[in-house]
Amino acid sequence: MGYPKAYVDFLMYFHGNRDYFECHEVLEEYWKEADPKNRTSHWVGLIQLAVGFYHYRRGNLAGAERTLNKALKNIEKNQKAMVRLGIDAGKLQEMLLDTARHISQGQPYHSINIPLTDDSLIEKVQSRCEENGYSWCSPSDLANSELIHRHSLRDRSGVIAERNDALRKKRG
After folding, report:
1. Domain that holds residue 50
2. CA-to-CA distance for 3 and 68, rounded, in angstroms?
3. 52-109 tens-digit pLDDT
4. Which of 30, 116, 122, 138 keeps 20 to 30 A from 166, CA to CA?
């Protein structure tokens, strides 16, 4: 089966270097092009999954719990789409429930691997990881503050300029 490149990249970042911020970025861009009005899209659920783990790793337990619960509801609603993406939706739901329980108990972050069922997809993602120097399914590097605090370290000048431009146009 052919999978969108953005999805393969999402999986590469999720399982390779655990760059959940980049997971969010690549899949959000794809979702906005493919189906931006569908807020309940399976793509949104996967984005929420990455954002939830980003918050969890940073110690934002309330944000992690809230976001992962949204992801869980989305995945429950979109099980068929998840299966088409080579994901064992039932197993992923169990993992998210387990993670939500750990968060509510204040337990420290731990990496998970999305349970993939398509061997050709796994091979493709492993190959992408290797091409980029990432170790497939290795745990997150908790000493890498650049990775952990990525959102606060990025250059937002383009986003700010876009918002200011939109505001100017709105005001006439």
Report:
1. 5-171
2. 24
3. 999 999 999 999 999 999 999 999 999 999 999 999 999 999 999 999 999 999 999 9
4. 30
Question: Rounded to whole angstroms, how far apart are CA atoms 158 and 25?
Answer: 15
Residue where the block lists tokens 């990432």:
134
SS3 at position 87: strand
Instruction: State which amino acid sits at residue 76.
Output: E
Task: Write the CA distances from 69 to 22, 81, 103, 120, integer angstroms.
Answer: 21, 18, 11, 30
SS3 1: coil
Residue 15 Cα distances to 20, 46, 126, 158, 172, angstroms: 9, 13, 9, 29, 46
Give me the DSSP letters along 8-37.
HHHHHHHHTT--HHHHHHHHHHHHHHH-TT
| Crossing angle between the packed helical segments 61-77 and 89-104, to the nearest 10 degrees | 160
Is the CB of residue 140 less than 8 Å from the CB of residue 109? yes
pLDDT in tens, 22-32: 999 999 999 99
Overall domain count for the chain: 1
Helix (H, G, I), strand (E, B) or coil at 172: coil
